[in-house]
Amino acid sequence: PGGVCAEVRRPCRFLVLINPQSGKGQAQPMFNNHIQHMLQEADITYTIKITERQNHARELVREADLSQWDAVVIMSGDGLLFEVVNGLMEREDWEKAIQTPLGVLPGGSGNALAASIHYYTGAQPVSGEELLVSCGFMLCKGLVSHLDLTSVCMASSKRLFSFLSLAWGFVADVDIESEKYRYVGAARFTLGTLVRLTSLRVYKGKLAYLPAEESQSLSSPAQSVSFTNDSNSSSVHSSVHSHLSRNSNCQNHLLHNSCNSNNAHKPKFNGEPPVTTQGPPDSLLVPLDQPVPAHWTVVTEEDFVLVMAVYQSHLAEDLIAAPASRLKDGNIHLIYVKAGISRQALLRLFLAMEKGTHLSTNCPFVVYVKVRALRLEPYSPKGTITVDGEVVEYGPVQAQIYDRLARIIAG
Ligand code: ADP
Ligand code: MG
Questions:
Q1: Cα–chain-centroid distance for residue 377?
Q2: Is residue 78 lining ligand 1, measured as CB closer than 6 Å?
Q3: What pLDDT score was predicted for residue 278?
Q4: Is residue 254 over pLDDT 70?
């Protein structure tokens, strides 16, 4: 298949992180029953680490000697992969570390990335154990593709890296409220949606974005902007480079240092959680206390039912939020629903999303646009924002996509 950038050599060694609490709490027996023989036959040896608490996986990959492993595989939901991605990006050697091939086995209740990579193969949709087996086969094939990551910046200047989604409003609330239905597995989102529909509300805020075409037309001749001494990690470097060259103002923005620094040794504020200072500089963003750049689009409506920015096709095993999205298309698929939509129409929308047909229903309240960066400023003092299905600091937030920053075994 096109787009494969490498193949995992054989024999090889995988680090497999299993979250015993994910989904219905069956990740480990499911791995034993469906996956271990498959890997053995494919000449893949592996070391299992059972995660013991939240952030355990993040700490493990932050400290790990990655040269031991040909891939880091998670058997859990999207939450554990979110930890792994951020653990890798928090390392001094992030640029090399984030190129470690990642693998996903759906063991959680929210298995959006696993469902997405299955969907990209063009195979018939499957769920549950069949999805697990499909993902197991992909690991055995060992084809490595690039994966887009989005950098998400919060008002505290904390930065996170995201592979799946940024959500506010209805979807974020369902994400979190449905945690308590984890025992029903992937159906938790459907159940959560139905419950939330009974208390449908409006979320007020300001939304702005950099349209994908706009950022392309601004591209200038390649500039040699280097921010690393490691010239070996050429592929990440060139992808970041192509980013920088897309924005003619990047030098200025680099000087502005919007919400992160390439300089890892910036002083930290007392009492703040550790700030991710590693990673590429956000060349498309200006600081949150400044207006968005003039060539951005500012949405005139300020009343929303939901705002979701997704960079993979699926938001859950049975929710195809952005059917046109691919592993590394370099786009944030921004979908928002304006206030005024009826409960019935919203329900229809979510039902259509199970097949991914919701964007072609011509619902006047739904807007879909491909962007490279966005900013969201909620007005209400309290609320929920999720990144990859996990709650993050609430408040103004902005994001930009990095095409091909990470690697994943898929296809
Ligand atoms: P699910 O799809 O079921 O939500 P996730 O992979 O998203 O599965 O995992 C949910 C959360 O569980 C993650 O935030 C992760 O940090 C946390 N976690 C990992 N290991 C443990 C553990 N042993 N006990 C409790 N929580 C854990
Ligand atoms: Mg989760």
A1: 20
A2: yes
A3: 81
A4: no
- Tokens found for residue 236: 């990440």
User: Which residue is listed with tokens 């094939």?
Assistant: 141
Bond prior to 274 in cis (omega within 30° of 0): no
Ligand 1 lined by 110 (C-beta under 6 Å): yes
DSSP β-ladder status, 159-162 and 397-409? unpaired
The ligand with the least distance to the CA atom of 76 is: 1
Distance CA 321, CA 318 (A): 9
How many whole angstroms separate alpha carbon 315 and alpha carbon 132?
Answer: 17
Whether 78 is catalytic: yes
**Residue of 249 and 161 predicted with greater confidence:** 161
Q: Is the CB of 20 under 6 A from ligand 1?
A: yes
Query: What pLDDT does residue 294 have?
Result: 97
Confidence band (pLDDT; 50, 70, 90) for 150?
Answer: very high
Among 43, 65, 70, 78, which one carries the catalytic annotation? 78
- Residue-wise pLDDT for 107-124, tens only, equals 999 999 999 999 999 999
